[in-house]
Specification:
Layout (H helix, E strand, L loop, with lengths): L2 H13 L4 H11 L2 H6 L4 H4 L5 H8 L2 H16 L3 E4 L7 H4 L7 E6 L8 E5 L6 H17 L4 E4 L5 H11 L4 E4 L13 H7 L3 E5 L9 H13 L3 E4 L7 H11 L3 E4 L10 H8 L4 E2 L3 H8 L2 H11 L12 H12 L3 E2 H8 L3 H13 L3 E4 L3 E4 L2
Parallel strand pairs: 3-4, 3-7, 4-5, 5-6, 7-8, 8-9
Antiparallel strand pairs: 1-2, 2-6, 10-12, 11-12
Helix pairs in contact: 1-6, 8-9, 11-12
Length: 375
C-alpha cells in the first residue's frame, strides 16, 4: 500500500468521523481514498447522495491531511502498521460490515484473517466463577481447535482474563483498543499487552493522542464483533458492554453464545436473559461450542498430525501442487498474491492449481479469499 493512499485514508477518517456509513459508501463507490480526494470537487456529481457535511469536509481537508502526515511519521517511527480497507491485512470479516472503519492501526504479529476467530467478552467485574469458565473453556478449546485467534477489548475483568488464558494456552490473541497506540488503558495491563505483541497484537481505529473516552469503548465493540466468527459472553450484568457486542454480532450475522449462571447472581443476569430471549445459544463447554460451530474437523486434523500420518497417504500431487502445498504447510491461510510471492508461480497458474487441490480435498477457500491446507 503506497504512502499517499494511507495518508489520504487517514485524512478521510478525520473529516467524517461520525458518519462512517456515508464515508464507507463513497469509498466503495470510488474504490480508494486517493480517488475520493483527487475528485473531491466533483463528489456530488459522482455520488449525489453524499452528505453536505462530507462535501464541506472534503473541500477543507488541509488540516486533516497535516494531521495524517504527522500520524504517518509517528507510525513509521514506532512500528505501527496503518492498514487501509484495501490492504490484504485488513480483517476481511470486518470489511463486510456497513460501519467498518476505513483505517486500522495495528501493532503485533498475528494474522487478522486466520481461519478461526472468536471473541470472548463480558463484565469488568469478573467473578471467580467467570475466571474458572474462561480458564476451562480456553484450555479445552485448545484440545479441539489448535488454531484460533482470540479477540477481546483489553479491559478489566473478562477481557483481560481471556487474553491471559489465550497466551497461557498457546493461542494468539488481539486486543482492540478504545484509544491510540501511543499508550495503554488500563496501564496495569501493560505486561500482558507486551506479551501479546509477539503472540497476537493490539488493534485500534484511533489516531495517537486519542483519549479512552466512553464513546470510544462502544465504537470499539463493533470491531471486536465484526472481525470474529463468533461472540462468547461469559458473565454480564443486566446491562453492559458485552451485551452490546452480542447485539452487534447478531446484526453482523455472527454466532452468539453465552454461559449460563446461577439465578440471582448479578453478573449472570445478562447471560441468562440473553439465553432466555434467544439472543444467544447456551453453551456449557468448549465441546458444545465446537459442535455448534461445526469445527469438529479441527480436532480430527490435529489428531491425524499427532499420529504422524505420512504424505504417502495424501492425494497424488503434481510438482507445482506440491510446491503450493509446502508453502501452505509452512505458513497456512495465505491469499493468492502471497502464494505467488512464496512460490514464484503466476496468479493465473495458482488459481488453476488451487482449484484442482480443492477438488482433491487438500485445501479449502476460507473467508477473505485465503486458502487453508487441510492435511
Amino acid at each position: 500500500m503506497n504512502e499517499q493512499e494511507i495518508i489520504y485514508t487517514m485524512a478521510l477518517t478525520r473529516i467524517n468521523y461520525f458518519n462512517l456509513a456515508g464515508l464507507l459508501q463513497l469509498y466503495r463507490e470510488l474504490g480508494s481514498a486517493t480517488a475520493i480526494i483527487e475528485n473531491r470537487q466533483h463528489i456530488r456529481e459522482m455520488v449525489p447522495e453524499a452528505s453536505p457535511r462530507l462535501i464541506a469536509g472534503l473541500n477543507n481537508i488541509g488540516e486533516a491531511l497535516k494531521r495524517a502526515e504527522t500520524e504517518w511519521e509517528y507510525d513509521l517511527a514506532h512500528q505501527i502498521q496503518p492498514i487501509t480497507m484495501n490492504d490484504s491485512r485488513y480483517p476481511q470479516r470486518l470489511k463486510e460490515c456497513d460501519d467498518a472503519p476505513l483505517m486500522l492501526f495495528y501493532k503485533g504479529s498475528a494474522d487478522l484473517n486466520q481461519q478461526r476467530v472468536i471473541n470472548i467478552v463480558g463484565t469488568r467485574h469478573c467473578t471467580t466463577y467467570g475466571q474458572d469458565v474462561i480458564h476451562r473453556f480456553v484450555q479445552d478449546l485448545r484440545k479441539h481447535c489448535p488454531r484460533v485467534l482470540i479477540v477481546s477489548g483489553m479491559a478489566y475483568g473478562v477481557d483481560i482474563h481471556a487474553h491471559r488464558e489465550a497466551l497461557q494456552n498457546g493461542y494468539e490473541t488481539v486486543g482492540v483498543l478504545a484509544h491510540g497506540l501511543d499508550y495503554l488503558y488500563p496501564h496495569q495491563h501493560k505486561p500482558t499487552a507486551n506479551a501479546m505483541l509477539t503472540q497476537g497484537g493490539l488493534l485500534t481505529e484511533h489516531f495517537t493522542q486519542t483519549n479512552a473516552d466512553k464513546m470510544n469503548f462502544v465504537r470499539r465493540n463493533r470491531i471486536v464483533a465484526g472481525m470474529s466468527d463468533a461472540c462468547i459472553l461469559v458473565e454480564s450484568a443486566a446491562k453492559g458492554g458485552g451485551l452490546i457486542t452480542c447485539r452487534l454480532s447478531r446484526e453482523y450475522n455472527r454466532d452468539v453464545f453465552a454461559f449460563p449462571g446461577r439465578i440471582g447472581d448479578e453478573y449472570s443476569e445478562g447471560c441468562n436473559n440473553l439465553i432466555r430471549d434467544n439472543g444467544a445459544a447456551l453453551i456449557n463447554s468448549a465441546e458444545d461450542f465446537v459442535n455448534a460451530m461445526g469445527w469438529e474437523e479441527d480436532a480430527a486434523l490435529m489428531n491425524a498430525q499427532q499420529q504422524g500420518i505420512e504424505r504417502d497417504f495424501f492425494p497424488m500431487l503434481s510438482p507445482d501442487e506440491t510446491e503450493v502445498f509446502d508453502a501452505l504447510r509452512k505458513e497456512n491461510d495465505q491469499n493468492v498474491n502471497r502464494l505467488a510471492v512464496n512460490t514464484n508461480l503466476s496468479v493465473g497458474r495458482l488459481t488453476s492449481l488451487l482449484f484442482e487441490m480443492e477438488m482433491k480435498g487438500v485445501v479449502r477457500t476460507m473467508a477473505g479469499g485465503v486458502y487453508h491446507v487441510l492435511i
